[in-house]
Design brief:
The structure is a single chain. This protein has 170 residues and is an alpha/beta fold. It has one domain. 29% of the residues lie in helices and 16% in strands. It contains 6 helices and 8 strands; from the N terminus they run βαβαβαβαβββαβα. The strands form 3 sheets. A 4-stranded parallel β-sheet has the order 2-1-5-8, sandwiched between helices. The chain has a two-stranded antiparallel sheet with strand order 3-4. It has a two-stranded antiparallel sheet with strand order 6-7. Strand 1, helix 1 and strand 2 form a beta-alpha-beta unit. Helix 4 packs across helix 5. The longest helix has 17 residues. It is globular.
Length: 170
């Protein structure tokens, strides 16, 4: 049975920066969980950050690709550079995905790690910009399709296509 990488916070684990969860009530996710298909993962915790932890954003809303290339950092509101933890978490997520043969991930939208459509703008005022988090950028760079928690049906459609690969590099 094909495995799916999923943000641990969506599965009710209290791993978010504020010590909370963002439990999803999605019926498909619940069914996949019962089937044992989900691989819950929090890149920020796996990268070595504590719970709770200061909120972090990608500077200038530059996006995960800019962080991967070294052109942007992930900072807390106080200016602490947590880029290395975010990179380590992204690499750990990729390793987990490869171990489990994952080709699809369902990750928490908006997160500086997991956002797939939008991320915060780096000003710590709640503004959002289009972009990918660090983990999403690395997974997609390696051919793993990433969907936010509101796009589970799209992920299911891709999973229904045997052997289908997401667009992008293999």
């Amino acid at each position: 049975m094909e495995k799916i990488l999923v943000s641990a916070c969506l599965m009710g684990r209290k791993v978010r920066y504020d010590g909370a969860a963002k439990t999803s009530g999605d019926a498909l996710l619940a069914a996949w969980r019962r089937q044992g298909r989900l691989v819950p993962f929090c890149p920020e915790v796996e990268g070595g950050l504590p719970v709770p932890r200061p909120a972090a954003e990608i500077e200038d809303g530059a996006g995960g690709e800019a962080v991967l290339s070294g052109a942007a950092r992930v900072l807390t509101a106080e200016g602490a550079d947590v880029t290395e933890a975010f990179l380590a978490g992204a690499r750990a997520a990729l390793a987990a995905a490869r171990t489990h043969g994952v080709r699809v991930a369902i990750l928490k939208e908006g997160s500086p790690s997991c956002g797939s459509l939008v991320i915060y703008d780096g000003a710590f005022g709640g503004g959002r910009v289009p972009g990918h988090g660090v983990t999403t950028a690395l997974l997609e760079r390696h051919g793993i399709a990433v969907f936010g928690e509101e796009r589970v049906a799209e992920a299911a459609a891709l999973l229904a296509e045997p052997g289908a690969r997401p667009p992008g590099p293999p």
